[in-house]
Amino acid sequence: MNIEQILDKVYLLPGALKLKLYQSIVKVSYPKGHILLRADKIENSIYFIKKGIVRAYSKTGDNEITFWFGKEGDTILSMKSYVENQKGYEDIELLEDCELYELKISNLQKLFYEDIHIANWGRKFAEQELIKTEERLISRQFRTATERYKDLLKNNSNLIQRVQLGYIASYLGITQVSLSRIRAEIK
Amino acid sequence: MNIEQILDKVYLLPGALKLKLYQSIVKVSYPKGHILLRADKIENSIYFIKKGIVRAYSKTGDNEITFWFGKEGDTILSMKSYVENQKGYEDIELLEDCELYELKISNLQKLFYEDIHIANWGRKFAEQELIKTEERLISRQFRTATERYKDLLKNNSNLIQRVQLGYIASYLGITQVSLSRIRAEIK
DNA sequence: TTCATTTTTTATCATTTGTAAAATTTTTCA
DNA sequence: TGAAAAATTTTACAAATGATAAAAAATGAA
């Protein structure tokens, strides 16, 4: 998925402004296993995923909890860094070799006050992240782990093939053993 | 909490624009028990709470799940209606007699394209809702019901006094019986 | 391919949480 | 105030989930 499609999906900018935004974006690549964002750090960039898959996780005492997966077309950001310039909750680990587009937050912030279209692009961007976050919350609050696993199978079956089940179990809020039981029952 | 404080908390608008925004806002009052928003409806307004307390809940087959409480200074909105002009998940019920400020979404949308400050107000508004929603998700994903109850006791003790425990148990994701067990243990 | 490592599944037992029903407390309103 | 209704707590039992350990299967590197 290339950067033009990704930016247009948020809000269609006039051509000249699109170029202005492109000037702040660079393509970067990192290998599987790379830690892209860190929970103990204020992050300066957001990233759009051109190719690859990543997970957000957080360490809680002895173990860690995976709470988001990102794939082609998704945005990687520490919301706390982006919005409040504060440390966030998540480490982001690349689960495959990834091609990303990097955008410096400070450059974007500056543009918000220079042009109304870019301000509205930023508004739409936040609104869309909001909708996605609400969906995650609703899914977590309303559906059982079994239902959520079936949802993944239906809507993100490639994710299940590309990500090890321990991470998916953690994402679903259950142990890997429980997920195995669920998988055994479904068959 | 009056409307000026509520709007300023998002983003400080120049005086003239503040007036422009005020023109779209009216003060309304509804009694305890009133259903303000409905899940089966595309909502046309958002509301700011001047006084009172409300809950968002959703019906799931036989029972219902409470997934948000709003109090003075909070914004009541169906995110799906606001962002995507689609039906949302929630009914909003007033748990006390409430004084609210009502803002028509269509009026606000129009202003977004007329002035860059209001566009940035809208951006900040969405970003702040995003942070709050992420916090709810993180709390739900990382903390046990007992921990979350203790958080409420510490940070929102008045909420526990003003809201019946059945709703709080539902919000915590446990049964009322379990919450009673937790309360008995803490004492 | 083969061996070592990692990942997934299976089995057992302990703990937690839910369901249902009864008892108690609190609130509402005539 | 007092009776009825609503809300909360308690109890007993059942069901679901977690922890642990170990076996089986899959993956990856030499």
Automatic annotation (TrEMBL), chains A, B:
Domain of life: Bacteria
One Pfam family named in its UniProt record: cNMP_binding
UniProt domain Cyclic nucleotide-binding: residue ranges: 20-112
InterPro entries, sorted: cNMP-bd_dom, cNMP-bd_dom_sf, RmlC-like_jellyroll
Protein name: Crp/Fnr family transcriptional regulator
Highest classification ranks of the organism: Bacteria, Pseudomonadati, Bacteroidota, Flavobacteriia, Flavobacteriales
